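Lab notebook page, bench 4
Experiment: in silico fold of construct C2
Operator: M.H.
Input chain length: 481 residues
Purpose: comparison with the prior construct
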Amino acid sequence: MLDFNNFDSIISFGERVAQQHYDEIKALADSLNAIEYKPLKSYTTVPLDSVEISQVHFTGLERMRPNYLENLFGEFRNSKVAVSDLEDVVRYAYGSGFFNAVFYEFQYSNGITNLLVKVKESERGTLAAGLHYDTDYLGSILVNLSLKNVLGRRSKLFLDLVLGRYPMLRGRYIIDNDVKPGIGLDFNMFSFGFDAYTGNTKENSFNFDNLGTSLFIPITIRNKYAFRAGFEYQYFRFRQDIAIDTSITGYDSYSGFGNLYFQFGVDTRDKPYFSTKGAFAKLKGLYTLPLSKDWNQELFDNTFTIYLRYDQYIPLSRKFSLNAKIFAGGSIENTGLITLSSLSEKLQNATGDERNLISVPIQNQFFVGGLNQYNYMDTFVPFVGMRFIQSQGVYIGILGLDLQYNFLKDLYVTAMFNAGQNSIVLDSFLNWDLFWDEDYRMLGYGMKLSYNSFIGPVEGSVMWSSQVSGAIFFLNVGFWL
């Protein structure tokens, strides 16, 4: 289907089709002129690009209060308004999820133009279910529940449930005040496992289990930019499937952590899958405090962690688009940055137990590998050609390029490339000469074939990397998180 906002593409498509049938159209025009000739009219009407608006009125509101729309459209009262700006706000109001339809019209009377905004409120809730499979998380049943204006005006409640080998339940309740601060409550429960690899050799298997909740203040700007700040409590544990590493045996019980955090997000993509233009970004900073008086405070210390994910989608032509992306992050311990000199000082003062050398909580460290773009934890970062999981570190920088070609309707082929570093100490991360070290560098490339089906993307990938000998494969079927 065509997007009617992309009028230039629609006109171009119509012109190409008309050229293919030029002779037939010309013959039809000649036959009509032979019956009755009508000269072409002169068209001088120019579409409105702006209008002077006096008052703004709303119709169709039932459960929503007028002040929600007033926050969006009130700025147009007694002002000259660009039609493009008005349509941007209409799209945002529709994108909020509170309305099934948002229309507007100009009402002119006695030399005054008023703006009438007509809305049709959305249903109170929706329930959806689907199936998903990928090489990292295996098979799952997905269930989603969305409720709007049920638990208060301007309220939204979202629940996502994943049933499978690695279950997950997360929810969010939010009072949406648009650009004014609102209030939100999150909870997140999951359990998932992964293998730790060195090259092609599996060294160990781990499970991460989490029970978490957070209270935050959200601010949203036109459904594209979002800011959030709050406090999160995590009841977290990590454990081995089989006790291979005896240094962490006995540290596999649940323990409490507190996170003071802020988060800024941007989403201007034209569509969530197979995007061709726009940007997706997430910047998060958190100050983590071990709260439980147990092994938690023996191993870890207060830590500040910050990371950025940024994806820029660039249309190159009607069929080709480029996704340039970056992921970068790092942590500062209570004693400062982790460097070779700081580790040396810790070793000199150590009592034989080296578990305390890196005191960044494990859930704040970065794990690299697999190809799933959305993981249960933001600190798990995909990388072309690397197994899930193949690298663990504290300081990370990864660059990526994906060249996407839409060669047939709903069929895509994508060339993928990644390069980067993920290090425990800052010295190694900043020493890019190590990137040329065969045992250290992270470099991956591959090809992906995708079908945009009604159940979500169906994708198969073949990849190679400097960390793995030979090709590895990734399969993804259906919508995901």
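Observations: The radius of gyration is 27 Å. The first helix runs from residue 7 to 20.
Next step: discuss at group meeting.
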